[in-house]
Amino acid sequence: MVLKTFNMKLVVSMVCLAGVCGQVSLANELSAAELLPVEKKLGQAWEVSWKRFYRDDTHLFYDYLISYEPGKELAHLPTKEEVQQQNPNECGYGTGMEDGMISGGVMLSMILDRAAVTGEEGLKERAFDAYQGIRACVTEEGFVSRAICHEDLKSFYPNSSRDQYTHAVHALWHYADSPMCGVETKAEIGQLLSRIADRMTRNVIPENNYDSLRADGSRDTRGISRMWNVNSHEWSRLPMIYAAAWDVTGKQEYHDLWRNYIGEAVQKSRRVPKAESTYALLQMQISLEMLTSLETDPALKDTMQEIQAGIAEECQSRALHANEAAKQLDLTMLCGDWRTTLGLSHKGKYRGVWYTIRECGEASLAQLGNEAVLTDEQQEVLNQSICRLDYDQVSSNGIFFLQAAYWKNRAHEELKHKALKVVK
Q1: pLDDT > 70: what percent of the chain?
Q2: How far apart are CA 58 and CA 152, in angstroms?
């Protein structure tokens, strides 16, 4: 069954409101039989995201769970000493702190899309919660850490990546542009984006091979912090940062830097890579989403929209593949503690489960650039991916991406519905 969503807005609003802040709503009067399966599952995914994957002290969402026992879900998170000793590596790979800005960015954007559809008042508080996590990871020097340690709320692994910067900047820009964001918070976001943009100006230079550098100012030996002279899916990241900083602050210097880079970036982004991971295509898409929305040059805008359509087309088959792969896996599997097991390593069995759930959401989400909506087939694939999971026994942060895809698609449907009403 393909879900028809326009007439479900009231039902979804009532159902979701009950799960936002524990508020009493009319959802309590609805029987289970009156709710479509995907709405029930989304409510469960939302509750689990906040109850198990999120910490109130750091305001961050973490990568995976190692237990379903209350209070032990995130027992694997590194101690202050482990973080400061860069154990097990300088990026925190595999520790649960690896993708804090990716998860935080996806969740914040999802909340804003959901709010645009349902109008739930309680979502304003939740958006601010997610924002605080991103804010805590931006240093005075504009370095964006992956996550901060829960023990001292300040220690972090010194090697970030352009992926973390991409999702953090996109979410900050999205939030600043939202009615959910207050005047003071928008000004604060302007300061955060300015710090990040200024870091790029200082560090992304030929002498550093266009590396934005590690937190201590040293070169990133992995090459994952390079912001220019990169692969086709990465060229739009640097101008995106400057465009976001200009759009929020209005400072001419950021406008000039954005315009300095944008032409070359678009031309070198024309090839949609077939061999890159789906997460890379999603990041390419959200970078172009921002740049397209701000672009005033018709030719550049048309080219970016063509690239966005190419990304969406490539990700249709990926969504189908991930959906089929999920049918063959034990999606209730837990990750092991990274200290004593293979954990999230590519050598272990869990990695496939963890990423398949995530890719189902990423591949759907990456089809939604330029206010596109999913085809009926792709909507059904997404619904299957959402409904397949037992949210009492799911340990992958992939559930963030599934929710994000659903609500962005709904938000785009609402925009098209309003546009049709205006035409009529």
Answers
A1: 90
A2: 9
Alpha helices in 53-161 (DSSP H): 80-84, 100-118, 123-136
**Would 403 be classed as within a structural domain?**
yes
Please tell me the predicted confidence (pLDDT) of residue 417. 78
| The pLDDT of residue 151 is above 80 | yes
Q: Which two tokens stand for residue 284?
A: 């390419």
Residue 423 has what pLDDT? 56
76 touches 57 (CB < 8 A): no
Q: What is the dihedral of CA 291, 294, 296, 302, to 10 degrees?
A: 40
In a domain, 25, yes or no: no
Find the domain containing 232 and state its range: 55-417
Q: Are 160 and 225 in contact (CB under 8 A)?
A: yes
pLDDT reading at 185 higher than 50 = yes
∠ at Cα 22 (20, 23), nearest 5°? Answer: 90
| Overall pTM > 0.85 | yes
Contact 144, 138 (CB under 8 A): yes
Residue 144 predicted with pLDDT over 90: yes
Does 24 fall in a domain? Answer: no
User: What count of other Cβ atoms lies within 10 Å of the Cβ of residue 4?
Assistant: 11
CATH number reported for the structural domain that contains residue 170 in this entry: 1.50.10
H or E segment at 54?
A: strand 54-55
pLDDT of residue 421: 65
Instruction: Put residue 93 in one of left, alpha, beta given phi > 0 → left and psi -120 to 50 → alpha.
Output: beta
What single letter denotes the amino acid at residue 333?
Answer: M
Residue 41 lies in a domain: no
* pLDDT value, residue 36: 73
How many domains are there within the chain?
1
